[in-house]
């Protein structure tokens, strides 16, 4: 990962229902909440809904979405984390350790006025439905819509190439070792939190800049 992308720990208390971090993405500071606690998810969603008028673009709210699972665990492993990013706020919900999925999250994901975007996310919706019964209204894979300045498709491009072309940032790639790590861990590593955040954040930024609500 580019050395200008770093993470700072804000709160990792074992007594807290969530852990807090700041991911420094070049000149942008992303405030990250990692939790398995439904009440924390409810508060995050409620705050997002409250702030949505500031983020709405022609009546649409763009949300960066990413999902992580353990690739080596069985033939079709379920999702262990769900990442949502709106603006400079990111939620990492540890689905595999949650006692329940809040109704407000289910409604948020099905809200037809929201536009959900990701990159290389062909399996994400299936993973969420498998064990957690989560459905997302119209989850877009941005690879199908973005192009180079010359008009060439980026359908087969890497995340690094797409971010470079669409956002102008170099060296933003997904480390394979981190992608293959234990996403069902009770305490995600700093590297996992960093990569999970970046994956959702760049999707949000590209979706917002590209006007994904029009697709």
From TrEMBL:
Taxonomic classification: Eukaryota, Viridiplantae, Streptophyta, Embryophyta, Tracheophyta
Keyword Hydrolase in record: yes
Boundaries of every 3'-5' exonuclease domain copy: 38-212
Protein name: 3'-5' exonuclease domain-containing protein
GO molecular function, one term: nucleic acid binding
Cellular component aspect of the GO annotation: cytoplasm; nucleus
GO biological process assignments: nucleobase-containing compound metabolic process
Keywords for this protein: Hydrolase, Nuclease
């Amino acid at each position: 990962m580019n050395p200008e992308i770093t993470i700072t720990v804000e709160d990792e208390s074992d007594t807290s229902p969530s852990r807090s971090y700041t991911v420094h993405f070049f000149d942008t500071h992303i405030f990250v909440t990692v939790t398995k606690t439904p009440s924390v998810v409810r508060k995050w969603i409620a705050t997002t809904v409250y702030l949505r008028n500031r983020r709405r673009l022609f009546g649409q709210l763009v949300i960066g979405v990413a999902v992580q699972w353990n690739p080596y665990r069985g033939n079709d492993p379920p999702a262990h984390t769900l990442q949502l990013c709106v603006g400079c706020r990111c939620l990492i919900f540890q689905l595999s350790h949650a006692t329940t999925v809040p109704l407000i999250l289910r409604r948020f994901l099905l809200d037809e006025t929201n536009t959900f975007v990701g990159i290389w996310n062909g399996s994400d919706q299936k993973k969420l439905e498998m064990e957690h019964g989560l459905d997302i209204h119209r989850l877009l894979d941005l690879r199908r819509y973005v192009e180079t300045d010359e008009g060439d498709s980026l359908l087969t491009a890497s995340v690094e190439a797409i971010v470079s072309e669409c956002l102008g940032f170099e060296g933003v790639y997904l480390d394979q070792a981190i992608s293959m790590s234990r996403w069902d861990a009770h305490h995600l590593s700093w590297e996992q939190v960093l990569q999970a955040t970046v994956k959702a954040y760049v999707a949000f930024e590209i979706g917002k800049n590209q006007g994904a609500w029009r697709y």
